[in-house]
Amino acid sequence: MIFFLCPLVLICCIFLRLIPRIIWKDFNGTDIYFHLYYIDLLKKNNNRLPKHEKRVYGSNECTYPFFYHWLLSFFPNSFISFWDRFSGFVFDLLNGLLVVTVLYHMHLISFNDALLVLSAYILAPGLTFSFIGPRPFSLTPRNFSQFVFLLSCFFLIISLSNSLEISDFNYVAFSVASILFSILLLSSKFGTQVLVSLLLAGIFDFKIALCIVLSAFFALFFHRSFFIHQIKAHVLHLDWYLKYNYPFVSHRSNFSILINFIKSRNLRGVFYEVVFFNQLFTSILRHPTYFLALVLGIAGYMHETLEGYQYYLLIILTVLFVPFIVTNFGKARVLGEAERYIEFAYPLQIILFFSVIPQAYTSTLISFILIYNVIWFLYNLYQLKHQYAARYSFSNLFSHLDRKDINLFCLNNNESWIFLKNTKANIIGFLVNVSMQGQYRIFFEKLFDKYPMVNPKYLPELCLQYNVTHILQNKQSKSGDVYEGAISALGKYVKIFEDTQYILYAHKPEL
């Protein structure tokens, strides 16, 4: 009976994971439109990335890591549409298969247990909860980079460990790990930050840091000029975040808010802080196996019971705990969501967890984890239903803006990517990174009031400078009255479209 039950459980979990993108085919946030457009940009330029995008007036340098987009640029649009919907599932399935294969090969779990672990893996809240961003259900380099990170770590551990019946230092595996890490550097901004954090592992074994340093040399070899430009833009963008945009991320892990909710006995507020916003607690809830594996691994290290591969898994998980903790507090929040650092190591935490727990409890713990993850995912579906049931349709706006002679200024400026992807209009804003240094400093000083909202004070000047033909205002913005007053004061723009969410203005000669 068990032989048939476990495959059935896996099939049901796969179906659960696929439900959101089966029901909601349009599931994209503004960031996703950027990634889809970046692929289009490569397609239009014979699979090469131009230095600048001519349709963007303002900051138009192409500095986003593009290796993953470059791979996808060779595929037809029909495949890209499919991949947008299901790539998150595919990469998680591949990662899960690698994890259970290792666990099964090392006789840590049975075949039936492997099916249940895989079932739990593809529904894990640390990978699928909608509030961690677009990774679970949309096209993003994050999925690809996490898959590459897992492969890199596998080869690195093989090269350093003799517990897998391979020589103590396998130079081929070490070189492969370095090359894969270089692909990660050329594919993901956050992946780059993870690798920089992993340099700390050199404290425990210098060869880990050496592997990462070599990966940077490989990245320079593969694409020297772009890689240098990419890293410089990344650093300047973080500098802007730190100096000018910290309020945008200051709500993350805001413990004073949580304490106030507790003092006022606001249970609803406490629930939302712990489940959605405070990343220390959300990580504990979504990644319990990480913290258990860390504690049990450290205990095993202190009692000298760890094997070689367990030791290196523990090093990686321990080192990534450092940026996780640091980015929960103060200005370090600009380095990204804290949870992402341990999310990158999710497959590794599962391997270490099942290798250090007493095997007598393995089946029981697998059942508990599976039930826990299913409950989380069902709650996730409930949240997704409320987020996407009344999804806004942009079709009417697209029809007004699908001309090459239109220069569109989105007052909620990160919405520009939506129209860059779906219309022929030019946009006023930025393509990738924001920087308060260099040639775009003056532009960005005037562009934003509080990111991503355009500064109404400089709206007339920017409209004149970039010959703006259309202005798009999101009515959900708190600055709606200010914008309407600023646009009215211009005296040259009239309202040509309005619905429940947007107002579109056009320059009078454009009518």
From TrEMBL:
<keyword id="KW-0812">Transmembrane</keyword>
<keyword id="KW-1133">Transmembrane helix</keyword>
<feature type="transmembrane region" description="Helical">
    <location>
        <begin position="144"/>
        <end position="162"/>
    </location>
</feature>
<feature type="transmembrane region" description="Helical">
    <location>
        <begin position="111"/>
        <end position="132"/>
    </location>
</feature>
<feature type="transmembrane region" description="Helical">
    <location>
        <begin position="194"/>
        <end position="222"/>
    </location>
</feature>
<protein>
    <recommendedName>
        <fullName>Glycosyltransferase RgtA/B/C/D-like domain-containing protein</fullName>
    </recommendedName>
</protein>
<feature type="transmembrane region" description="Helical">
    <location>
        <begin position="309"/>
        <end position="329"/>
    </location>
</feature>
<feature type="transmembrane region" description="Helical">
    <location>
        <begin position="284"/>
        <end position="303"/>
    </location>
</feature>
<feature type="transmembrane region" description="Helical">
    <location>
        <begin position="86"/>
        <end position="104"/>
    </location>
</feature>
<keyword id="KW-0472">Membrane</keyword>
<feature type="transmembrane region" description="Helical">
    <location>
        <begin position="169"/>
        <end position="188"/>
    </location>
</feature>
